[in-house]
Structure formats: structure tokens, C-alpha cells
Design brief:
The chain is 44% helix and 23% strand. By secondary structure, it is α/β, with parallel strands linked by helices. Strand 8 and strand 9 form a beta hairpin. The radius of gyration is 23 Å and the shape is elongated.
Length: 295
């Protein structure tokens, strides 16, 4: 049984995200995510100008004159949230932990999905596959996903994006919309990510904390612990050169990831635990809608 405080927290997230769905994202979701293809609808008599490739030869032979197949877009979509639950996700220095931000973003997109009669699925991972929730519709299903994100206790500590994507690629045969939510403190995931991007509509959501981007100068020593390895070390915040080196290494790593995402046509949304996430999501929806208009 869930603690009352957690139930209240889930309820607060539900109220907030459903309001955002209605007030901010109404129509945005529908316009930027396509259905999974086309499905057969019916046949009708051929009229001049119809594509001859759509002639149904079996019906034509039976009726004695040409008939063509009609198709309609298959609108039902499946959203798959592949969420990093490694120890580094339970880090936050300003207002919230990264996993808390990931949970709220997942809730917002999930409520957008079910309001359009789409399915939602969850894959939680660390350096192992922690939990998989199969695709389903409805409010109760979204609340279950929120509960798992906020209450589930992962067994692993480290991040293995390759493992998560390879598991997803085997598991989900039908094309879906995949949101990979992580701080991407990992390497070597490029090949499986390329495969996922070919099979699915893949969007990367990178969540970081300000302290991961730069260390402020306090003119004193700071004890730092790597959440995933448990390694502990002292850092002299008064050493300007060390602070600059730390920031430059992080920027270089992020730019390398950005280059990979861009060259493989993978959309990237950058979120920060110290800033509101809604503006970034609105910017993503607007950018994507404009791009689709030009296709």
C-alpha cells in the first residue's frame, strides 16, 4: 500500500499536468505525432484518375469491372517511456531531483497521449532492466506508471543505455514514439540508438542539474561522490582552473552528444532541474510542427 504523502504527490502531479494538457498542449500533441501508418478501409468502384496500383484484382475479377482499395490513416499510437532510474537520477541541488522532473514530464506526455486515445508504456532501466509496463490506455494506467516512477526502488546503480535500447528493440516490434529520458552519463550507446531511431520515432530528453554543468567558486573544499560508482573525492572550489577544466570537459561531452543526435535526426529536448520544463516542451512542439509542415 502506498504512503498517503506519495498518493497526495501523485494527485498533485495529475492535477498540474492535466491542466497543462488542457491549457497549453491542446492540439499540439495531435499535430506533431503521426499515426503508425495506413490501414485498409473498404473498396469502391474505379474512377478515371485513380492509382491503378490500388486496384483490388480479386474484387475486380468477381464484379466484372475495376474496384480500388481505400485506406485510412491509423491514428492509434503507442508512447514508450524509456526512463533512466540509475543512482545519478536521484540527484538534485536546486528544487528537485532529476527523477522527479522525469516523472512529471512523463505524466504530462502520458495524459496528452490518453486524451488522444493512445497507449502508454514504461521501461525503467539502470545497468539492468528494472521494470516493464506493457502499453495500455486510460487514466488508471497512467497513474500506475507515475506510481512506479516515484515509488519503485531500482536494484542497479549504474547507467546502461545500450542494454535498455537493445531490450526495447527486441520487445517492441510495432513502430512507436519513444521518449528516452536520461542524464546520458554513459557511452557506447550510439549503435543501438541508431537502430531504435530507424524502427521508432525517437526523442531524447536529457535532464541535467546545474552542479553537473559547473561548480561554483566557494573558496573551499567540497566533498563529491559519484552516485553510480560510490567513488568519493575532494574538489577545491577555490581553484579557478580546475573549475574551468571541469566545465569545459562537460561542455565537450554534451556537444559530442548533440552532434550525434543531430547527424542521426534524433530530436533532443534539454531540461534542467533548476528551470521550468514547460517552455522547453512548448519550444520542441513548435519546432517539430514547423518541420512537419515542410515535409
Amino acid at each position: 500500500m502506498l504512503p498517503k504523502e506519495l498518493l497526495k504527490h501523485i494527485r498533485r502531479i495529475e492535477i498540474r499536468t492535466k491542466r497543462l494538457v488542457n491549457e497549453v498542449f491542446a492540439g499540439e500533441y495531435e499535430s506533431v505525432f503521426k499515426g503508425e501508418g495506413v490501414e485498409f478501409s473498404e473498396v469502391r468502384e474505379y474512377v478515371p484518375g485513380d492509382d491503378i496500383r490500388r486496384i483490388d484484382w480479386n474484387v475486380t475479377a468477381r464484379m466484372g469491372h475495376p474496384y480500388v482499395k481505400k485506406f485510412r490513416e491509423e491514428r492509434e499510437r503507442t508512447l514508450i517511456f524509456v526512463v533512466d532510474a540509475s543512482s545519478s537520477e536521484y540527484f538534485g541541488t536546486i528544487s528537485r531531483q532529476k527523477i522527479s522532473l522525469a516523472s512529471e514530464v512523463t505524466a504530462l506526455l502520458s495524459f496528452s497521449a490518453i486524451s488522444n486515445n493512445d497507449k502508454v508504456s514504461l521501461l525503467l532501466f539502470t545497468d539492468m532492466i528494472e521494470k516493464f509496463v506493457p502499453p495500455k490506455k486510460g487514466r488508471r494506467h497512467v497513474l500506475r506508471i507515475m506510481r512506479d516512477l516515484l515509488y519503485f526502488k531500482p536494484q542497479g546503480r549504474k547507467t546502461d543505455i545500450t542494454l535498455a535500447l537493445e531490450h526495447l528493440n527486441r520487445l517492441m516490434r510495432k513502430r512507436g514514439i519513444v521518449f528516452l529520458i536520461s542524464d546520458f552519463l554513459d557511452t557506447g550507446f550510439e549503435k543501438p540508438m541508431k537502430i531504435t531511431a530507424q524502427k521508432h520515432d525517437l526523442i531524447a530528453i536529457r535532464i541535467l542539474d546545474p552542479l553537473e554543468l559547473s561548480i561554483p567558486g566557494f573558496s573551499g573544499w567540497m566533498l563529491l561522490e559519484d552516485a553510480e560508482t560510490g567513488n568519493i573525492g575532494w574538489f577545491d572550489t577555490g581553484d579557478r582552473k580546475r573549475r574551468m577544466d571541469y566545465g569545459l570537459r562537460k561542455i565537450e561531452a554534451l556537444e559530442k552528444q548533440n552532434e550525434f543526435f543531430s547527424s542521426n535526426d534524433i530530436d533532443l529536448i534539454d531540461l534542467n532541474t533548476s528551470r521550468p520544463y514547460v517552455d522547453e516542451l512548448v519550444r520542441f512542439f513548435t519546432m517539430r510542427e514547423r518541420r512537419l509542415r515542410t515535409i
